[in-house]
Amino acid sequence: FFGDIEMAPPIEVFNLTRQYNEDPNSKKYNLGVGAYRTNDGKPWVLPVVRTVEAQMATDETLNHEYLPVAGMPDFRKEAIKLLLGENCSAIVENRVEGVQAIGGTGAIRVCANFCKKILNFDNMYTSNPTWGNHMGIFKACGFSNVKQYRYWNAETRSIDFEGMIEDLGAAPDKTVVILHGCCHNPTGVNPNKDQWRQIIDLVIEKKFMVLLDEAYQGFATGDLDADGWTARYLVERGLEFFVSQSFSKNFGLYNERIGNLVIVCANSDVKVKVRSQMEMIVRTTWSNSPNHGARIVATVLNNAATLDEWKNNVKEMATRIILMRKMLKEKLSALGTPGSWDHITNQTGMFSFTGLNPSQVDVLTKKYHIYLLKNGRINMCALTTHNIDYIAEAIHHAVTES
Ligand code: PLP
């Protein structure tokens, strides 16, 4: 059965970590990984998560029974409130549903399944570039027309808004359009509010289904409400739409696989039917979600003191990222590295699309043992006050030498 199987291509981001781990040089840096790091280069278990986990460990009223198929009710309710704001009209009108999922990935997966099987969509458009898994998930769910709209202007190192609107304008009817709510991965570049208005005008005109990918709420500004603006704006415009929420980054719960698919419906009758079909999809996909991550998120969000503490933890992460952006730009400017580096501080979120080309990336890896994706994306949290001089000088040499 298995003898003729060919090797699948490596997954770039995991391959990069393997190469980094195998590098015997002691002075090496991995800027590829998509997770937060402290200024000491270490993973961070948020203090508020530690506190809640300690309480959970001794709480004898908790057990490990199955959750409802759509997931933990308190978690879904709190996650929706966090995204849309407590006073959101759609919440008040009882027309928003949440389906707990295996990370943001699982939320995107059940959304794609639903759009294909229940809504009969066959076209999906996502940005070029985008998070490496969007296209694969929709193809795996049977979408036969999976395309990318222009998004990044390499010359200006900012959004190619005209290209985006032109490509979306030419997309067929019945298209699912993926938009990143904030902190676009990998570019760190997002539409401004006026551009969002124009995008949603087009979405309404063309009757697109929007899937808003919200994997980094809080990471752009450190303010969860400000970063939730896009989803709230879509409600204001009267759309029915999906949002895939991930708590991997803003709770540091990467391996707990905790996400939520938010579905904003036209009314509460529709919502009940949507949930019933979603439950069928979850039932045949993973049957039932795990509770540990959901319980942590629900407990933290449900209590004013822990909510406050968590908001401070998020702010701390965002502030460190913003500081690293500023320091990198200043150091490159001080070194006289050719080109403008303003985009480093104009971009938001965990990643920066540096504009380094593949041969410059090659120099960084081979000569300086600095690992990053071929497209020049770096994780800003991989920079620290201890390694930033070395990394800035290496970038300077890579740009001037190649
Ligand atoms: N969407 C985007 C844009 C991401 O960057 C990621 C993770 O890196 C995800 C979705 C998936 O998140 P999760 O790890 O929670 O599945």
Which features characterize this protein?
single chain, 402 residues, alpha/beta, Aspartate Aminotransferase, domain 1, Aspartate Aminotransferase, domain 2, 2 domains, 7-stranded mixed sheet, 14% strand, binds pyridoxal-5'-phosphate
What are the SSEs and their pairings?
Layout: H1 12-22, E1 29-30, H2 47-58, H3 73-84, H4 89-92, E2 96-102, H5 103-117, E3 123-128, H6 134-140, E4 145-150, E5 152-153, E6 158-159, H7 161-169, E7 175-180, H8 193-206, E8 209-214, H9 224-227, H10 229-236, E9 241-246, E10 258-264, H11 268-285, H12 292-301, H13 304-335, H14 342-346, E11 351-353, H15 358-368, E12 370-371, E13 377-379, H16 388-401
Parallel strand pairs: 1-12, 3-4, 3-7, 7-8, 8-9
Antiparallel strand pairs: 2-10, 5-6, 9-10, 11-13
Helix pairs in contact: 2-12, 3-12, 7-8, 13-16, 15-16
Structural features, described:
This protein is α/β, with parallel strands linked by helices and 402 residues long. The protein folds into 2 domains: 12-45 and 310-401, Aspartate Aminotransferase, domain 1 (Alpha-Beta Complex), CATH 3.90.1150; 73-302, Aspartate Aminotransferase, domain 2 (3-Layer(aba) Sandwich), CATH 3.40.640.10. It contains 16 helices and 13 strands. It has helices at 12-22, 47-58, 73-84, 89-92, 103-117, 134-140, 161-169, 193-206, 224-227, 229-236, 268-285, 292-301, 304-335, 342-346, 358-368, 388-401; strands spanning 29-30, 96-102, 123-128, 145-150, 152-153, 158-159, 175-180, 209-214, 241-246, 258-264, 351-353, 370-371, 377-379. A 7-stranded mixed sheet has the order 2-10-9-8-7-3-4, sandwiched between helices. Helix 8 (193-206) links the parallel strand 7 and strand 8 (209-214). Bound molecules: pyridoxal-5'-phosphate.
